Amino acid sequence: MPEERTKRLGWIGAGRMGVVLADRLLRSGCDVAVYNRTRAKAEPLEAAGATLVDAPIDLADRDIVLTMVASTQDLLAVTDGPNGLFTGRKGPGLLVDCSTVASEGSEQVRRRATQVGTRMLAAPVSGNPKVAKTGRLSLVASGPRDAFDEARPYLEILGRAVTYVGDGETARLVKIAHNLLLGVVTQCLAEITVLAERGGVARSDLLAFINDSVMGSTFSRYKTPAFVNLDFHPTFTSRLLRKDLELGLEAGRRLDVPLPVTAAVHQIVTALIGSGHGDEDFATLLLLEAAGAGMELEPERVPVDDGLHPIDDLARDAMREK
Fold first, then answer.
1. Beta 138-141 vs 125-126: how paired, if at all?
2. Which pLDDT belongs to residue 208?
3. Which of 45, 236, 217 lies closest to 125, judged by CA?
């Protein structure tokens, strides 16, 4: 292992995303100890070489602890709740939080970290577990520059791109801005797809054209199978998207920035949840748009490439084991 990747790591959170990212660290040869509230979910990591611990405080002696949890409250719980990471006399050298949480909650954790001698880096990720498995995840980080330099070798294992954007909670704002774009682009894609189908164009043909044009993107390719074959197994639910839209609108109010398009999409996503699609993938915006046009869509049942091919050796090795 390269000299700069020899630190003892801790990992908190073995959910759908956390287990994939911790596994990438283990596959790269890192020393990783793992805590998860439901121990059974972390057991596959033990088989891959991780040491499982019973409480977050058991990771306080680690050089770097990374967290991937579902909410701000979860982050507060694992850091300062009963047997939390910061409840001992001293914390780990560095906390790297990869979750998408509110800036205010993150700042609260950062202040508590300082009290136990721990530096903190906010490093939320862009992508979902399938994206992470292929090595295509992106991360944005903020905090002390020396903390970023220390964590960077490990962040580069987790994804293909790592961007440092400054001190404090700046990365939280960047991630929220990213997710506002996610919602707006998906709604726009739903509108043009329904428009084209009403005019007699197959969804697969429209999206093939879009994906091969200058307007195509990794995201439009990735969502094409859902739009074409109506498979809405959740990668990111409508409820989670609404939460991030609300965080963005709150930031707009705080910074005096009008966000009229975001506000409109927020209302559309709220209607989507009200129509029963709250726990499905947010690509169900397509169904809501079709319903508004009086159309009932059917799966086209054609093979469509999502564009997510492994781009590094860790991803290729993981795919070969399946």
1. antiparallel
2. 97
3. 236
